[in-house]
Amino acid sequence: MQGPRINHRIRVPKVRVVAADGSMLGELDTHEAQRMAREAGLDLVEVNPKAFPPVCKIMDFGKFKYEEKKRTNEAKKRQAVVELKEIKLRPKTDVHDLEVKIAHARRFLEEGNKVKITCRFRGREITHPEAAEKQLHVVVDRTRDLAQVELTPRMEGRNMTLVMAPLTKQSRPRPRPRPDGPPAHDDAP
Q1: What is the pTM of this model?
Q2: φ, ψ (nearest 5 deg) of residue 22
Q3: Using alpha carbons only, what angle is made at residue 112 by residues 111 and 118, rounded to the nearest 5 degrees?
Q4: Sequence-distant (≥ 6) Cβ neighbours of residue 90 within 8 angstroms
Q5: Domains, the chain, ordered by start
Q6: Number of other residues whose CB lies within 10 A of the CB of residue 54
Q7: Could you report the per-residue pLDDT of 107-145, keeping only the tens digit for each?
Q8: First-residue to last-residue Cα distance in the chain
């Protein structure tokens, strides 16, 4: 059984008891504490088994479990889920194809996901890792406003990988206000 021990499962001779209203009742025999809980129509729940003597509280265990489950679900909802999206390149990936891949990376970063860019070498391409590193630096330069490099380019077997993480909301550079001058659109003839 997992979770706290309740009622008859508490096997120690003495426990420190906390009443349902939160007041301390002191150190009591376990049977006396269980009797008090039964009379109140509640359960005796061991809240700190490591203390000496163990601390038990008189409470409605069903309600306690329900509220605890509700709290964990609420915490899970607030938790931000960051996925790792992967973009694959080759050292010979053409300029337009690279632009498309950069657009995908920007979209992933705007959604708040991390991006892993992998450049895979085939055959003799491995003798020129600088070509792949150049491509990865182009991607980093084009996404600098949205991301920071988390793992710099490095070789892993026949792949060169780079991981970028989205910038936090505070560290994103704000768009600069336009300098004083003519308005963006002129309605006058």
Answers
A1: 0.53
A2: 95, -5
A3: 95
A4: 119, 120, 121, 122, 125
A5: 10-60 (3.10.20.80), 84-166 (3.30.110.10)
A6: 19
A7: 999 988 999 999 999 999 889 889 889 999 999 999 999
A8: 81
CB 17 within 8 A of CB 25: yes
Query: Three-state SS string across 24-38, please?
Result: EEEEEEHHHHHHHHH
Summarize pLDDT for 21-58 with one digit per residue, the tens.
889 988 999 999 999 999 999 999 998 888 888 999 99
Joined together, the tokens standing for residue 164 give 């970028």
Structure tokens at 51: 């203390």
Identify the band that residue 148 occupies on the pLDDT scale cut at 50, 70 and 90.
Answer: very high
CA–CA gap between residue 76 and residue 99 (Å, rounded): 37
